[in-house]
Amino acid sequence: MTTNEQSTSTTSTTTSTTAVGDLDAERADLLEALRKHRGLFRVTVAGLSDEQARLTPTVSSLSLGGLVKHVSSTEAEWASFVTDGPAPAPDVDWANVDWANPPAAVQAYADGFRMLEGETLAGLLAAYDEVAAATDRLVETTDLAARQPLPEAPWFEPGASWSARRVFVHLVAETAQHAGHADILRETIDGRKSMG
User: Fold this and answer.
1) Residue 173 resides in a domain
2) What is the DSSP pairing of strand 147-149 with strand 161-163?
3) What is the pLDDT at residue 190?
4) First to last CA, the chain
């Protein structure tokens, strides 16, 4: 199968029912960019077994299955931010976590980067498809200028807010960045590249 065939076969379920041509140019651009980078991301896991998707072939603890899970949950969290504003942060003292026996919120966060026993790549991709379709509907329908206050965090300026437009641009960047991570992992596993 060629890279183009892989891209087509792995991206067909991530699109919503609205044709890009039926939207205004800005929404169409956002959807096209999201779909492109989701498709490139999905190419990196095409044809892998669950065992291969769990592998951590570099010095980091990242696996392809864990990246699918992380990208999916991150996209869902940002979509929720667009509609509901910032979620309450767990009450965790991150500087003093006992990593040998972490609190439940910390363990859940760490598990969001791992493909756990009992999880399948197909299941993680199906969940990602659902998240992507819901995000696409938001891009199609939400007021792109609507703003939400960013949560308090060291990486956000105090009192800052983001528009829905800014969130969707961030999702494009986040997906593209993780597609690059995934490409490195996949090439390390079996030499396959998503491009080139």
Assistant:
1) yes
2) antiparallel
3) 93
4) 14
What percent of the chain shows pLDDT beyond 90?
A: 73
Q: Is residue 12 assigned to a domain? A: no
Whether residue 8 is contained in a domain is answered as no
Helix residue spans in the chain (DSSP H) = 3-11, 25-43, 50-54, 64-84, 104-111, 121-141, 164-190
Residue 48 has pLDDT above 70, yes or no: yes
Q: Which residues, in sequence order, are CB contacts of 91 under 8 Å at separation 6+?
A: 105
The count of structural domains within the chain is 1
pLDDT band at 7 (very low <50, low <70, confident <90, very high): very low
Residue 162 has pLDDT above 80, yes or no: yes
CA distance 42 to 50: 14
Q: Is residue 17 part of a domain?
A: no
Q: What range defines the domain where residue 35 resides?
A: 24-87+96-190
Q: How far is CA 155 from CA 22, 148, 166, in A?
A: 37, 16, 16
Q: Cα 171 to chain center, whole Å? A: 8
CA 89, CA 185: separation in Å to the nearest integer? Answer: 31
Answer yes or no: are the C-beta atoms of 13 and 118 closer than 8 Å. Answer: no
Mean pLDDT within 104-112 = 90
Q: Which residue has the higher pLDDT, 9 or 74?
A: 74
